[in-house]
Amino acid sequence: MADTKYIFVTGGVTSSLGKGIIAASLAKLLQARGYKTTIQKLDPYINVDPGTLNPYEHGECFVTDDGAETDLDLGHYERFLNVNTSQANNVTTGRIYQSVIEKERRGEFLGKTVQVVPHITNEIKERIQILGKSGEYDIVITEIGGTVGDIESLPYIEAVRQLVWELGENNGIVIHLTLVPFLSAAGELKTKPTQHSVKTLMESGIKADILVCRTEHELSEDLRDKLALFCNVKREAVIQSIDASTIYDVPNMMYDEGLDTVTLKKLALPDDTQPDLTQWNAFLSRHKNPKNEVRIGLVGKYVELQDSYKSILESFIHAGAENEVKVHVEFIHSEHIDEKTVTENIAGLDGILVAPGFGERGVEGKIKAIQYVREHNIPFLGICLGMQMAVIEFARNVLGLEHANSTEMNSQTPHPVIDLMEEQKNITHMGGTMRLGAWKCNLKEDSQVRKVYDSEQISERHRHRYEFNNQYKTQVEEAGMICTGLNPDTGLVEIVEIPEHPWFVGVQYHPEYKSTVASPHPLFVAFVKASLQYKTNKTNATLA
Hints:
alpha/beta, 9-stranded mixed sheet, 23 strands, globular
């Protein structure tokens, strides 16, 4: 019998059904019952990782402590489970093929013809079992990206078929997520797409053990019976996943549907304890019953696709709940901000976050926005590029260095207050070569961030090539922008703030990657609190 049990989550009919949320919700329920659970994502695209993908293509690139650039679903996994993921939790087709080709070049296949079956499928099976063989987990949930029937997903589906057979009865099960669409013209839900999806899965040799049906309307008992009969699953294994007002409702909805109970039964594991969701539901209650609200502007250049800033948006939900505040995030395209529009874009907001990004497009708008909030004492949080733009704005408008810039935007700038990191200067490859993962940072005594973190040293995740140019450090600090966070080993400036401003903080790292339901990130909590204070002061001043 296998020590670790495996659950495979596949999808059919259409993409974007929420396999990641279902996987994370099931993992949360199993974890709340006392089972050590983790989730991994297998992505069928040929990129080695999402690090070189445009955010419009794939949403944000999530970064783990060990420096892996991964799919945004890993962010959901961490936010739900409050457990760090790693390089092992995200595998792409590109990585699989890269590994197999390297093995072939080393002669490990002893001159045999290298084929999809068995060599690619064996590599996939090995990757799936890395976490299981670590001895850390009772249950490993594996989400297969894409939909059943996609050409690029076929090797993964075949690997799952083999592995379920090899693991033996009750050690590996398949959960299939499908769509049950509502046809308004007919006025009814249709099961045929789900039937076809299950049939396609069976043609690949896999029988779904549990069917999770995404729907906009309640599934009737007759419909559930029909799905069970035609899709060859037990009646109790037909699970409804109806649209929710927030993704954080889904674990409770899956609990009500009995997803964790039927899963444990299929895996022959005890289900005699009830999941302890006390902390989770306390968060949900605060989230749904705010005592106040604030409007925070998110200034970025990928605002058309909200998934580009997924972790930031979720961090605001966590921090809002912590403050019992509803955070209304207003997206502001940085390309639309200039001298004429900056006031109308920002004047009515309670705080501004200037988002991360790469490249020259839209940076002048970010700088204009930062100047406005600095001069009008509006709470400000700058992340990565946002922090760098804050330094440039300060150098231009306070130090009088008119053409100050980053060498990323202008390699010939006379005042490179932001410059390429020394170790980046000889790098030619784009993928996986930035400063990535968790790095330490020492916090200056009596600083805003020292109070926020209540700690002398922190560890935060990074993803950048450019840094604050320390040649300008003295000049900047003498003018009133203080470098309050430094890497203890390299002296790299991690945090800047303006003590004379009510709340002005820029950070080189990405705090949003570490915010979870159980542990909202302290920077976001403090920023939301400062925004609420600003709103209160503004209201009181108006009333006075």
